[in-house]
Write a structure and sequence with these properties.
Layout: H1 4-32, H2 36-63, H3 73-86, H4 92-123, H5 127-156
């Protein structure tokens, strides 16, 4: 790899993999939730994430490339962290808060990825791709606000006992 376009394509394949993996993860987290608000947030973001995949398909199209996923170690690490935590057999309420935090971690990862891709798209003169990536970024930022707010609300409401000091 020796140029910006190659790096852009590499990063695009990475986020394409991540978005596909997150569709499955969001579905699982929605099913695990005890809170209607949390379930709705995960369901809504799953629908948005499916739209992110469609936009990424269009970005590949502008490049004249076939959409292709490349394993994303960052997202795989977050998914592994979630699976490992589930082995601790948390209560449903604790799992809700954990899943919201896990969602926030994933959103921050995606936000960073999209910011980088947007910068590269601009430098490469990919105006349509830049616009599509910007739409994904805005939805990721909104999702981060949603999961962060829901987490704070559940913690403040005392949904989980504080425990001993």
């Amino acid at each position: 790899m020796d140029n910006l376009r190659q790096l852009f394509e590499h990063e695009l394949k990475d986020i394409y993999y991540a978005e596909h993996a997150l569709v499955k993860a969001l579905d699982q987290m929605q099913g695990e939730s005890t809170s209607a608000d949390v379930r709705q947030a995960f369901a809504s973001h799953k629908t948005q994430t499916e739209g992110h995949v469609q936009r990424l398909d269009q970005v590949f199209g502008e490049l004249g490339e076939k959409a292709e996923a490349q394993m994303c170690a960052g997202i795989e690490g977050l998914i592994k962290e979630k699976k490992d935590f589930s082995k601790e057999k948390p209560t449903k309420e604790v799992l809700d808060i954990f899943n919201l935090a896990a969602g926030a971690k994933a959103e921050r990862y995606e936000i960073s990825a999209y910011e980088g891709l947007i910068g590269m798209a601009g430098k490469l003169g990919l105006r349509k791709s830049s616009d599509l990536l910007q739409q994904n970024l805005q939805e990721e930022q909104h999702a981060l606000t949603t999961v962060s707010t829901l987490s704070k609300t559940l913690v403040s409401a005392g949904a989980v006992p504080v425990g001993a000091k």
